[in-house]
Write a sequence for this structure.
């Protein structure tokens, strides 16, 4: 058996608007969307450079049907220009690809798709089966599996959930897929890459979409020959979304916060990544954290920086004790102070005091 080689990717969301992400302005958003397509192009280049036999696009290549037709056509031209075979399943986001206008263009570009009537492509030297998200049926999958030529490498391409059975996009579980005779199962839908078994894997998306996608991104390269399956996760992203937590104290000022953020520059000397600074902890009562000012001061130092302020003004126990004389608040503080140093639980005291004050405020 000649080695059959492939690249497995998914969830590219190439025309995403990213309006859900926290980009301050539309130009940052536009630039990021362009980067998603650049990374896709780079991956196509890799497929050429490595001379792989097949590219598996395991669904959600597009985010929604809203794009200009000439832009869609340009992507199809790129896919038809690469020398390997391209296989695509339709995900929950790009079901519009089943519409005949789009289907025709996919066909014209030589992109191989799947239907319940024709769930298997048998090519010279290997077989690929697949199912669009909404067409999946376990019975059909078993029927296809029975018809495989066991002298050929075979791959199954699917888009959906295989871990949480309560999920609306649940297909079947990973153990069931692992028990099929396919040599490799290429999954899409979950953006964090994961090998669920040796041969059942989510590739994840090659480029993260927002701060919720902090894990490493890339695609899966695979080889099937007489010795069996070999796979490798290839890190490929241009940028990371990094969240940093700064715990503030009453000693912090706007300048000290600025300096603490500036110190992060050395972790990202090429100004490549997206940074979110989460401000936590307790600040001086007089400190007004204006995140606009912080952004103005620091924006040139990073490709992207944003702030999320969840810090709270420090609680002045002595002042509160006087203000809330003869109340539960005073009792709480007294109890705390009568505890030995070792027993003192400052965090829970502050939590309790804040809760009481919040009830008080509501009542007013
Ligand atoms: Mn999906």
């Amino acid at each position: 058996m000649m080695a059959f080689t492939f690249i497995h990717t998914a969830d590219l969301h190439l025309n995403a608007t990213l309006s859900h992400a926290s980009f301050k302005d539309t130009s940052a958003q536009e630039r990021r969307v362009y980067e998603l397509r650049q990374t896709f192009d780079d991956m196509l280049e890799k497929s050429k450079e490595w001379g792989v036999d097949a590219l598996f696009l395991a669904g959600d290549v597009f985010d929604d049907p809203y794009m200009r037709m000439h832009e869609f056509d340009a992507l199809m031209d790129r896919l038809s220009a690469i020398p390997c075979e391209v296989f695509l399943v339709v995900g929950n986001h790009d079901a519009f690809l089943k519409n005949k206008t789009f289907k025709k263009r996919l066909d014209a570009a030589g992109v191989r798709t799947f239907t319940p009537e024709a769930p298997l492509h048998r090519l010279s030297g290997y077989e690929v089966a697949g199912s669009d998200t909404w067409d999946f049926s376990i019975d059909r999958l078993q029927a296809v599996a029975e018809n495989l030529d066991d002298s050929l490498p075979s791959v199954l391409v699917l888009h959906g959930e295989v871990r949480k059975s309560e999920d609306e996009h649940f297909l079947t579980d990973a153990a069931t897929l692992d028990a099929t005779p396919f040599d490799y199962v290429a999954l899409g839908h979950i953006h964090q890459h994961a090998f669920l078994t040796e041969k059942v894997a989510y590739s994840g998306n090659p480029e993260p979409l927002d701060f919720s996608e902090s894990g490493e991104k890339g695609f899966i390269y695979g080889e099937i020959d007489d010795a069996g399956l070999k796979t490798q996760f290839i890190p490929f992203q241009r940028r990371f979304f990094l969240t940093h937590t700064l715990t503030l104290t009453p000693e912090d000022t706007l300048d000290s916060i600025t300096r603490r953020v500036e110190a992060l520059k050395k972790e990202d000397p090429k100004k490549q990544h997206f940074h979110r600074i989460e401000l936590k902890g307790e600040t001086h009562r007089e400190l007004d954290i204006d995140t606009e000012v912080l952004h103005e001061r620091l924006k040139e130092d990073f490709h992207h920086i944003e702030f999320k302020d969840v810090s709270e003004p420090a609680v002045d126990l002595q002042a509160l004790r006087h203000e809330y004389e003869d109340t539960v608040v005073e009792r709480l503080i007294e109890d705390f102070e009568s505890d030995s140093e070792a027993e003192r639980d400052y965090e829970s005291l502050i939590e309790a005091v804040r809760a009481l004050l919040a009830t008080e405020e509501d009542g007013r």
